[in-house]
Design a protein that fits this description.
By secondary structure, the chain is an alpha/beta fold. It has one domain: Glycerol-3-phosphate (1)-acyltransferase, CATH 3.40.1130.10. It contains six helices and seven strands, in the order αββαβαβαβαββα. A seven-stranded mixed sheet has the order 1-7-6-2-5-3-4, with helices on both faces. Strand 3, helix 3 and strand 4 form a beta-alpha-beta unit. Helix 1 crosses helix 2 and helix 5 crosses helix 6. The relative contact order is 0.20.
Length: 215
């Protein structure tokens, strides 16, 4: 049996993230009330900067277990990330351990955080991997789109790897939606169709978030 991360461990990460993110930056969180207060939820987050995951972890109204590439689990970060309930995933293979743990988080009624683009990029949800659809359909969990805007601002940076200190970063939550068609099917065709539905919803949310924030 694969050990599952606990909500308590993710809550420790959230307690660390709150003062850190609000101390370094000026997060503006919009629509967080849209996240269901209980039950399994998947946060689908656009990804254009290293700070996106910690930012969402720190401002989320519920503790989040993010799927994070195994390359980030190096040196002292390995026990730290594991200790705060984050999930190591090998993006170059079918990582059954990561899949089992992610599904387990949802089956326990927790919040799973995913960067559906698979890696850092333009952060525009232009290319999605099928993993998000699989988890949503398998666990019958609603998806809440989250747009992180402003993390790629370059002017005024003191640390190259971080956005400018005390800069405003907007985190915009969208309405939860179901990815599946109600049949519960997990065939390749069904997951491809679910991925298409997800991409339309995420792209629409990102456009709305940009209009709302002027970013």
């Amino acid at each position: 049996m694969t050990d599952l991360p606990t909500t308590r461990s993710a809550d420790i990460g959230r307690r660390i993230g709150v003062p850190l993110m609000y101390g370094l930056f000026r997060p503006r969180v919009l629509g967080s009330w849209r996240m269901p207060a209980a039950g399994p939820v998947i946060l689908a987050v656009n990804h254009s900067h290293n700070v996106d995951g910690p930012m969402v972890m720190g401002v989320s109204p519920r503790p989040v277990h993010f799927l994070i590439k195994k390359e980030a689990f190096i040196g002292p970060l390995d026990p730290f990330l594991t200790g705060i309930g984050q999930l190591k995933v090998d993006r170059d293979s079918t990582d059954r351990t990561a899949i089992t743990r992610a599904v387990g988080v949802l089956e326990q009624g927790g919040v799973l955080g995913i960067f559906p683009e698979g890696t850092r990029g333009e952060g525009d949800f232009a290319a999605l991997r099928a993993g998000l659809a699989y988890f949503a359909v398998r666990a019958n969990a609603p998806i809440v789109p989250v747009a992180v805007l402003g993390s790629t601002e370059r002017r005024g940076r003191l640390v190259k790897a971080l956005p400018p200190l005390r800069s405003r970063i907007d985190v915009v939550y969208g309405d939860p939606f179901d990815a599946g068609d109600g049949s519960g099917r997990r065939t390749r065709k069904a997951l491809d169709e679910a991925t298409e539905r997800i991409q339309k919803q995420l792209t629409a949310h990102l456009e709305n978030a940009r209009r709302l924030t002027g970013r």
